[in-house]
Amino acid sequence: MTTSHAGTGADSGTASGSQTDSRSDLRSSARSGSRQIVLDTETTGLDPASGDRLIEIGCVELVDRRPTGNNLHLYVQPDREVGAEAVAVHGITDEFLADKPRFAEVSREIRDYLVGAELLIHNAAFDVGFIEHEFRLLNTPLWLADECVVTDTLMLARKRYPGQRNSLDALCKRLGISNAHRTLHGALLDAEILAEVYLALTGGQESLLLEENEQAGSGESRTVSLDIDVSRLVVVRANDEETLAHEEWLALLREQGEDGVSAWDRHVPTP
Prior knowledge:
Number of helices: 11
Number of strands: 8
CATH superfamily of the domain at 35-202: Ribonuclease H-like superfamily/Ribonuclease H
CATH topology of the domain at 35-202: Nucleotidyltransferase, domain 5
Shape: globular
């Protein structure tokens, strides 16, 4: 058993609904124009109700499905011992955490960073439960479902691959994403891997959202979702700043990838 769900935990199940529903849900989650935070945590144990505490939070920011580099990574001194089973999973010891800030000292930074974003979390109930528990202990509740859109990437994966293992490790293998550098769990590392998995998982056909009046002058509108061939779309070239940011992200992925190759290199043909 582990204290971090990413790569372990509940990872299989059969989702209800058709493959069409699955693709629709994936496209809906992948809409551009929004700020998305890929989030992971590490903890002292499995159950906040039993006194377990959060000790690490790692977040990767995506805007328009592109990493911005505006990430958040914090360690927290939990005022309790880290369980031996937890240390075996993430390697974070009491000695390492001794000089780290307490959650109260970083709570405002975490709140300001998360509120208003879509949170992408693998087995979201685990992380959400711990984060909300920490804020409740301060008598300053933060209900993430009210302040953010919470998207459980495990549920997305189960709809895409019903009946299969959908842990982070299993998805990396299935989608051709290297996680060879992941010998221990780490919140930021797992968030970076999950970001790559999410982009690969939702990187198929996109949807166009069109609003049209039901009747002229009626003021009523409806949303129409279309399956389109993205290869027929007009190509808008990235500017120099966007190209540089993209190359920097690819360089990071290649450093972490097997034999210097990232999932992007495997899935996107060289022009």
